Amino acid sequence: MRPMASTAFDLKGKTVFVAGHRGMVGSALMRRLAREQADLLTVSRSEVDLRNQAAVNAWFAAKRPQAVFLAAAKVGGIVANNTLRAEFLYDNLAIATNVIQAAHANGCEKLMFFGSSCIYPRLAPQPLREDSMLTGPLESTNEPYAIAKIAGIKMAEAYRSQYGADFISVMPTNLYGPGDNYHPEYSHVVAALIRRFHEAKVSGAGSVVVWGTGTPRREFLYVDDLADACIHLMKTYSSPELVNIGTGEDITIADFALVVAAVVGYRGEISFDPSRPDGTPRKLLDVSRLAKLGWRATTSLEDGIALAYRAYLDEKQRCRQSRFARPEQNNYVARSEIDLAKSRAIKE
Ligand SMILES: NC(=O)c1ccc[n+]([C@@H]2O[C@H](COP(=O)([O-])OP(=O)(O)OC[C@H]3O[C@@H](n4cnc5c(N)ncnc54)[C@H](OP(=O)(O)O)[C@@H]3O)[C@@H](O)[C@H]2O)c1
């Protein structure tokens, strides 16, 4: 195995581009980076669609960021991944190739690429070690997303080996927190459960259905913990080796549903719908490399879910109050509407 080099990379005074700054991860990075005295650069999708190579090249040539967090991506839960297979492959490949190449061509000193635990083979030994990438078949429901992410990781690695670029890749586990997507069909499990339990509590419904059998085991990380880990690695880590970011602990979906229901205050029945896909049976990251690099998660699941639920309620409130807000500025309503519009367009 190649050595894991450590270097000091000070963010203070640097121009730092957060790609995907309005997303769940990007906005957590923006919150955390506010403490680094960096000069933060962002650009909205309406100004620069990161799938558009010419637009990306022009923006990078004009701004020349010294550091890049590549947290823009087409992201979604199991149904979105499995339904919008072409979009998940195309968007994520295009974003990764355009941004990594433009960063290299415009003198970027350091780039962090965001992969995902989905890149590991479906039946890889658990907990998932970084070196299990490309050792077996992927989970079919998210294969297009995983293939695009693996291509991004390989690009970062190739630019490092060929040009000496200081590009690193991190593999976050399942994330949750402020800025999550609460789309009824396309969200990840945490947002989906917060929304369903909340709506059942408010409407007085006596039963909530959880997708799948409830038996798969998953690991969940609060997104502000992720952002803290990323800043730590950006400042101290330089190596082609991937770094998993997680808590190192997993829980069954059934037990997790009980935690979310308790935090939300839903007291009705919880049943399971086995006709919905379970996805991979277990997904727990081996976080020993991250621990050796000096970082571990600090937010408990209960505390994190309580913070995420608070953020969900705040966003609903903000949404009700801002009648004249542009819909794309609103995660709760607009991300649903945008995705619904897209899925309608796909069906037509
Ligand atoms: N969420 C998780 O559980 C999880 C787990 C592991 C890894 N990750 C990785 O973490 C990264 C961020 O995920 P996230 O959860 O923050 O996703 P997210 O909330 O959906 O945010 C994605 C961001 O990317 C932007 N984006 C997407 N397509 C774009 C395009 N064509 N041009 C410009 N911007 C575009 C979005 O812009 P708009 O605001 O305009 O939509 C949004 O700001 C991704 O690489 C993802 O693979 C996430």
Textual characterization of the structure:
This protein is α/β, with parallel strands linked by helices and 348 residues long. The chain has a single domain, classed as 3-Layer(aba) Sandwich (Rossmann fold), CATH 3.40.50. Helices cover 44% and strands 15% of the residues. It is built from 11 helices and 15 strands. The protein has helices at residues 24-33, 53-63, 78-83, 85-105, 143-163, 189-203, 223-236, 253-264, 288-292, 301-321, 331-347; strands at 5-6, 15-19, 39-41, 67-70, 110-114, 167-172, 174-176, 207-211, 217-218, 220-222, 237-238, 243-245, 251-252, 269-273, 282-283. Strands 3-2-4-5-6-12 form a 6-stranded parallel sheet, with helices on both faces. Strand 2, helix 1 (24-33) and strand 3 form a beta-alpha-beta unit. The longest helix is centred in the first third of the chain and has 21 residues, at 85-105. It is globular. 46% of the residues are buried. Mean pLDDT is 91; it is low at 324-330 and 336-348. The site of NADP nicotinamide-adenine-dinucleotide phosphate has 25 residues, from helix 1, helix 4 and strand 7. NADP(+) binds at residues 20-26, 149, 172-175, 188. Catalyzes the two-step NADP-dependent conversion of GDP-4-dehydro-6-deoxy-D-mannose to GDP-fucose, involving an epimerase and a reductase reaction. This is GDP-L-fucose synthase. One of its GO terms (molecular function) is isomerase activity. Residues 16-246 form the NAD-dependent epimerase/dehydratase domain.
